[in-house]
Amino acid sequence: MDRCKHVGRLRLAPDHSILNPQKWHCVDCNTTESVWACLGCAHVACGR
């Protein structure tokens, strides 16, 4: 992910969880299944 031009544009702390998909969990229900991350604001959620 460190070569992705979209992720490279994000202004985040180096240890932010969006940079490590293994740490992703939905901010609403805390699931780790079928989660996605917004490359505009770094919000992580699921489709539920």
Automatic annotation (TrEMBL):
Pfam families: zf-UBP (PF02148)
Coiled coil: none
Molecular function in Gene Ontology: zinc ion binding
The entry's keywords: Metal-binding, Ubl conjugation pathway, Zinc, Zinc-finger
Alphabetical list of PROSITE patterns matching this protein: ZF_UBP (PS50271)
Domain of life where this protein originates: Eukaryota
Residue stretches making up the UBP-type domain: 2-48
SUPFAM superfamilies cross-referenced by the UniProt entry: RING/U-box
Protein name: UBP-type domain-containing protein
Lineage per the UniProt record: Eukaryota, Metazoa, Chordata, Craniata, Vertebrata
